[in-house]
């Protein structure tokens, strides 16, 4: 069972069985309920349990380890701009596109530095742990980048990464500025619609978390830009699809669900 707390300690409780709610003791009042596609939806109020999560989910420091579980040392890092940033270049200028050359700049990482995106990082090859310097003794998880001095590592090629949190942080930020996320999974194009953020309580685990309520549906008429594969790989696309906690309830022809970390 899960509780969706929308505002002022009011929200909805979802249960598969009508009497399931009496197996757990929690301080709330039920004002009404309805049966929707075999899911009992209870409207609750005066939910008393204390919320303790932080509003900002994003990590402020990074503790990456290589595939051999050795720490990747760095002295500084910078966050890369979001995808499609180059499409905004024309908006920066009121003259004759004087910033066009910015598109052709090559990524250069400072010594002992990292450039970090939502799902990957750039690092100088010389700054990798010693265990990763010999390519002959390592798996082919390293993708050489441009000059071969700077390489791109997807987070799933590293250790000590909370992939579920990576996904949540990305979508949490993405939906601040966008309402629809389009992705391709197993040759099908899906659109994910953002409804709202909420407090989320999993009753049987006694666990609070920040969550987003979303809708998802297949839409073959949408255009998926192949270039999107440059900033998010198949590993994270599959996680996004599979980590959704689906409800057997539709809103606006979207199958609804929750994403949480």
Query: What is the molecular shape?
Result: elongated
Q: Write down the oligomeric state.
A: single chain
Number of strands: 14
* Main sheet makeup: 9 strands, antiparallel
N-to-C span: 17 Å
Unreliable stretches covering 5 or more consecutive residues = 51-57, 136-143
Protein architecture, described:
It is built from two helices and 14 strands; from the N terminus they run E-E-E-E-E-E-E-E-E-H-E-E-E-H-E-E. It has 261 residues and is mainly beta. Residues 51-57 and 136-143 have low confidence and may be disordered. The strands form two sheets. Strands 1, 2, 3, 4, 10, 11, 12, 13 and 14 form a nine-stranded antiparallel β-sheet that branches. The protein has a five-stranded mixed β-sheet with strand order 5-6-7-9-8, with no helix packed on it. The protein is elongated and about 65 Å long. The two termini are 17 Å apart. InterPro entries: UBQ-conj_enz_E2-bd_prot.
Short description:
The protein is mainly beta and 261 residues long. Helix content is 10%, strand content 36%.
Write the layout of secondary structure elements.
Elements: E1 2-7, E2 10-15, E3 29-36, E4 39-45, E5 76-79, E6 113-116, E7 120-124, E8 143-145, E9 150-154, H1 163-177, E10 180-185, E11 188-202, E12 207-218, H2 234-243, E13 245-251, E14 254-260
Parallel strand pairs: 5-6
Antiparallel strand pairs: 1-2, 1-11, 2-4, 3-4, 6-7, 7-9, 8-9, 10-11, 11-12, 12-14, 13-14
State the main characteristics.
Polyadenylation protein; 9-stranded antiparallel beta sheet; 2 helices; 36% strand; 261 residues; UBQ-conj_enz_E2-bd_prot; 14 strands; mainly beta; 10% helix
């Amino acid at each position: 069972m899960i509780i969706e707390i929308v505002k002022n300690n009011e929200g909805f409780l979802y249960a598969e069985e009508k009497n399931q709610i009496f197996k757990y003791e929690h301080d709330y009042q039920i004002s009404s309920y309805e049966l929707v596609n075999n899911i009992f939806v209870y409207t609750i109020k005066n939910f008393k349990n204390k919320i303790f999560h932080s509003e900002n989910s994003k990590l402020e420091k990074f503790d990456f380890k290589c595939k051999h579980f050795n720490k990747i040392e760095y002295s500084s890092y910078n966050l890369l701009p979001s995808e499609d940033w180059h499409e905004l270049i024309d908006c920066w200028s009121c003259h004759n596109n004087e910033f066009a050359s910015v598109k052709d700049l090559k990524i250069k990482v400072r010594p002992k530095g990292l450039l970090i995106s939502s799902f990957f990082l750039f690092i100088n090859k010389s700054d990798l742990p010693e265990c990763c310097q010999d390519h002959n003794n390592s798996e082919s998880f390293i993708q050489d980048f441009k000059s071969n001095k700077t390489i791109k590592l997807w987070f799933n090629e590293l250790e000590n990464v909370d992939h579920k949190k990576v996904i949540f942080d990305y979508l949490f930020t993405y939906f601040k500025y966008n309402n629809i996320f389009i992705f391709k999974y197993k040759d099908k194009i899906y659109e994910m619609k953002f409804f709202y953020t909420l407090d989320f309580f999993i009753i049987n685990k006694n666990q609070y978390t920040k969550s987003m309520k979303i809708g998802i549906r297949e839409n073959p008429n949408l255009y998926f830009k192949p270039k999107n594969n440059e900033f998010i790989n198949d590993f994270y696309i599959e996680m996004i699809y599979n980590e959704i906690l689906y409800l057997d309830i539709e809103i606006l022809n979207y199958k609804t669900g929750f994403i949480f970390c």
